Each structure stands twice: as C-alpha cells, then as structure tokens.
Amino acid sequence: VQLQASGGGLVQAGGALRLSCVVSGGTVSDYIVGWFRQAPGKGREFVAGINRITVSAWYSDPVQGRFTISRENAKNTVYLQMISLKPEDTAVYYCAASQKWYGVKIPTDFGSWGQGTQVTVSS
Fold first, then answer.
1. pLDDT in tens, 40-81
2. How far apart are CA 73 and CA 121, in angstroms?
3. What pLDDT does residue 79 have?
4. What DSSP line would sit under 23-43, residue for residue?
5. Residue spans of beta strands (DSSP E) within the chain
6. 119 with 91: CB under 8 angstroms?
7. CB 33 within 8 A of CB 24
8. What torsion do the CA atoms of 110, 83, 115, 98 make, to the nearest 10 degrees?
9. What is the b/e burial string over 90-119, where b = at least 16 CB atoms within 10 angstroms of the residue's CB?
C-alpha cells in the first residue's frame, strides 16, 4: 500500500490546518492509519491513529483535544484536523499504515509510510 500526505503549510499560533493522507494500492479501512511528526533534531513522534473498519481513534497527550483524525472511505483518505496550533507543533508530519492492532504507536509497527508534509506554526 502507498500513502501520500499533503496539506501542510505555514500558520500562525492559534490557527488550524487539515492534513490529508491518500491511500492507494489498498483499501483504507483494511489498515490502521497513523499520523506521526518529526521536529528538527528529534525522533519521530506518534500523533494520532484510527482503527481499521471502525473509526475508533487514539491520540498522544500533547495533541489530545486539539487534533482530530478521521477517515473518508469513499476517497480512501485519512485526515488530521488540527486546531489551536502551537509553535511546538512545528514538524514534518507523516502518515503511515499498520496491520497491527488498536492503540499501536511505535513507528516500527507501521510498515508503509508516505512522504512528509511540513507544518510550521509561527508565534
């Protein structure tokens, strides 16, 4: 399965962005899809995940209540809606697919990755 992330950009603190992850070569609801981010000089950090078949979701503590992951089966796409953005949200954001189980957060448990999309939040 292949994934392509898009939707990043430059936004002021307090603003919002919506990232998209289009899945091809497979059906999006057959996979767990997660969003990760990587800031300069830091490791890849889990952000949010959405379960296969159902739309159950889980989030990291720093984004809980501000970010929402969702899926549109007809477009084979997973979204990450981000609101109340903070400068510390600045990073390259990646989407990835896993065939593991609900709650998975470790990058090595995701077998397919899209290219990143840059999100920059200015103060």
1. 999 999 999 999 988 899 999 999 999 999 999 999 999 999
2. 30
3. 98
4. EESS-GGGSEEEEEEE-TTS-
5. 2-6, 9-12, 17-24, 32-38, 45-50, 57-59, 67-72, 77-82, 91-98, 112-113, 117-122
6. yes
7. no
8. 10
9. bbbbbbbbbebeeebbebeebebbbebbeb
Asked whether 116 and 92 are in contact (CB, 8 A), the reply is: yes
Locate 116 and state its tokens: 């990143």
Instruction: Please state, in angstroms and rounded to a whole number, the distance separating the CA atoms of residues 105 and 123.
Output: 29
Burial of 65 (0-12, 13-18, 19+ CB in 10 A): exposed
- Residue 109 phi/psi, 5° resolution? -85, 0
Q: Rounded to an integer, what is the distance from CA 108 to the centroid of its chain?
A: 15
Give the span between the Cα atoms of 37 and 90, in whole angstroms.
Answer: 9
Q: How many residues does the chain have?
A: 123
d(CA 78, CA 5): 9
